[in-house]
Amino acid sequence: MRVSVFVGVSLDGFLARKNGSYDFLPRKGGDDNGYDEFIATVDAHVIGRKTFDVVRGFDEWPYGETPVIVLSRNPGRVKVPKGVHCELMGGSPKRVVARLAQRGAKHIYVDGGRTIQGFLNAGVVHRVIINRYPVLVGSGIPLFGPLRSDIRLEHVRTRAYRHGLVKSEYRVLPS
Amino acid sequence: MRVSVFVGVSLDGFLARKNGSYDFLPRKGGDDNGYDEFIATVDAHVIGRKTFDVVRGFDEWPYGETPVIVLSRNPGRVKVPKGVHCELMGGSPKRVVARLAQRGAKHIYVDGGRTIQGFLNAGVVHRVIINRYPVLVGSGIPLFGPLRSDIRLEHVRTRAYRHGLVKSEYRVLPS
Prior knowledge:
homodimer; alpha/beta; eight-stranded mixed beta sheet
């Protein structure tokens, strides 16, 4: 079972602006950077409540038929729009991963700043794939945050794409 | 006349820990990533007072015979150790660059978090070269900071080196 992060960020490490907008990323940024290939192997998305609030406003539900787990400390308070297939879950990153593994999940995709940071801090992320765009935005929702201790990674590969996108893949080393 | 930034950072964008230590970067990180070649073309270093406070504690003055400009709002307060060749200078990034250009400087190397951020915000940096090491440290002295507005860059090249170092070179686009 693998837990992966696959994100697009500004050169200064922001996933989005403070208001949730990511207008600084190219519209179809993912068309040739292996996202489709990556996502085809994912059998569970784990997102935070804030990311959920952003994506549920989209014209199209971005996760297709793949199960989506929305993390929340107050699952009762989260409103799920009609026709949206997702499940609310509480608990620590370790517990969430264990529950999904019990159900047979082989590849979990963790998304959203706070959620990614929580899962990294809990030591349950195996792979981090960062797509960096050549723009500095100065402030916003950061990909990374405070840590309990250093996390060492192994660089797997880096490739440059259109729009000046640089994609780097890392394996998280055991602490 | 060119103004360049050439830095080593953690994957989460820190130049150093809060106490100034950069023990998370490989000791001889610069031995094969083109630093020597780059530095050979530099004819003026511009550093902030905080970076100066760190480097003046080194056993060896790291800038050799190349002129070093130490920026300070209170130049009178900065103590320069014996045998250290540096000049104190106040004023805005634009003024500093203009003064050095008048003296014939062709390639200025700007270093230190605050100084880099000030020069980027002032729109006087032409080139940014970032050497990213595969470690997350969670907090420290950030390479980038708040901006008056987005800064767009053009990706020039990216290469992976030993220790999992990934070096990316960007050209700053005119705003």
